[in-house]
Amino acid sequence: MIEIKNIYKSFKQKDGSDLTVLNNIDFTIKEGEFISLLGPSGCGKSTLLNIVSGLEEANSGEIIIDGSPIKGPGSDRGVVFQEAALFPWLNVLENVKFGLKNKGISESEINETALKYIKKVHLSKFKESYPHQLSGGMRQRAAIARALAMNPKILLMDEPFGALDEQTRMMLHYELQKIWLETRKTILFVTHNIREAVQLSDRIVVFGTQPGRIKEIFEVKAARPRSKNKGYLLELENRILNVLKEEIEKVMKEEMGDEYHFEEGSLPWDPDRDMGSHI
Ligand SMILES: Nc1ncnc2c1ncn2[C@@H]1O[C@H](COP(=O)(O)OP(=O)(O)OP(=O)(O)O)[C@@H](O)[C@H]1O
């Protein structure tokens, strides 16, 4: 269980002032739960994920994992970033083996474990390929295999599919759901894509901005895999979009000035050109 307790975080700005990014973030993630953090750009999603990973420190509040407050990064938490952080000079197998070398296990066990997770993400044919020889989706699959091979209890994913095309993203949604069902890891997943959050999560924590705070938590009550539950999922997407509209407008006004006003129906609408529910 992850307890996120009254997290407050501010950053020093160039002019010396403090920018409050997260204000009183407080919620609990159950063991084996898939939680998404969803919200407009700049609301502090990545900052919260970094605090849970131990890479960033909160000004006040604490993160308690299974009863113990965290004191920094730990092997109980694996992180996958938007850009697969693979070593370019190592091939897929060597990348996945890399972290296992400090675990005090034999070379044959390291090899066996790495190959098992490479197989899980369907990259066995490419185990000797280098990152530059792989597509973006393959690189992300390799990064997921590397994180899973360390067998963390918790997987922290910061927009892992954000830079991928829609088809690859949909395929990886399916794969991630399968992996999650098999391994039952606790997953904390950052996204700004409503559809992605609805497809993958047990619960969606919707953030408001300026400063980042929890606006509403939605539960997704649909069995997996989710493609067949279209009506309910679309209705949920719309409910979440309604909650977010206000926040998105706030961000746009900040960037474009007060003359900005979002008028629904002001764009020519063609359902065949629906590009999904990105915020
Ligand atoms: N190390 C830092 N120093 C100063 N400001 C920071 C730092 N990290 C983040 N910020 C600021 O904190 C705010 C929240 O950033 P964060 O990356 O957490 O938002 P986000 O919701 O993940 O946004 P996005 O979806 O665009 O990645 C932003 O205004 C950002 O500029």
From TrEMBL:
Coiled coil: none
Domain of life: Bacteria
Pfam families the record matches: ABC_tran (PF00005)
Entry-linked SMART domains: AAA
InterPro entries linked: AAA+_ATPase, ABC_transporter-like_ATP-bd, ABC_transporter-like_CS, ABC_transporter_ATP-bind, P-loop_NTPase
Gene Ontology terms for molecular function: ATP binding; ATP hydrolysis activity
Protein's name according to its UniProt entry: NitT/TauT family transport system ATP-binding protein
Species name: Orenia metallireducens
